[in-house]
Fold:
Amino acid sequence: MASIDRAYPVYWEAAVLIASATNKRVYLLANSAKSEAAAALHRLKLMVEARSTLVGLSEELDGSPAVGAGADRLIVLGGDGTLIGAARSLGRNQIAFIGVNIGKLGFLAEFSLDELERCFDQAVSDDGLVGRRSILDVSISRNGSDTESIPAVNDCVIQAGPPFRIIRLGVAINGSHLTELAGDGVILCTPSGSTAHNLSAGGPIMQPGVDAIVLTPLCPHSLTHRPLVMQRDAAIEIEALHVNDGTTLIVDGQVSYAVQPGDRITVRRYESDLLLVHNPLHQRWHNLTSKLHWGRAPNYD
Structure:
């Protein structure tokens, strides 16, 4: 039986019940662009081989081979961007991710390498730790022809771009016209993405498990346009009424598409959810309070 740290009594009993993860199939994916990745990958590989079944390893950001390998868990070494890119590469065939942060903030990548070593068996075996997070389905229609659906884990953003003049976007929800936005663009995000670009633009912070889509105007040329939270089955259509030469649709900050006048961007819930293993050593609001310092009192000294 693997050793268990009794410093965490709340989780000790559960860990005893699932102390052996040897029957679980694990795939490792590491971001080789991170300077710490090689040493961390070697350390993690030894741990996985000793305590479960390693079915594959890659230093590419494509996680799709893990599907063919029949992996139960996909452990990602990197940061949130690495995990998001890997999740998008899985498409509809999502596998439960364990994110190990060797990046910066680490909102989705909840584990440090030391923490994963401490609770590895529980993280790999306990399906009660797996949370479902909605993904967006983004498609572009141009001259009557639609693109394939593009999954967005965090958000899709339409930004004005050069020459940085105000753009105009028509917005409809479930086929009903809502408004016309004039400004620098718009953000459509998942609850997971609410703490990314959306937060910086003044949008709401949402609990990750909420079934909703957020629309946040970017610098709207109106006092009445404010962020809007919509139900999970909303289909939002954005029409490019007047755009700049450099106006761009950006998905998860990683994939971009030029937007032309008359383009229609449709955003709805994707048919599969992101499956993310929660770090049992953290409280549910750990990231918000410890990393964004939400609710911290001002220093009056």
Notes: Helices lie at 9-17, 37-51, 65-68, 80-90, 113-118, 120-125, 197-200, 286-291. The two ends are 51 Å apart (CA to CA). The chain has two domains: 9-133+273-291, 136-269. The chain has a mean pLDDT of 90.
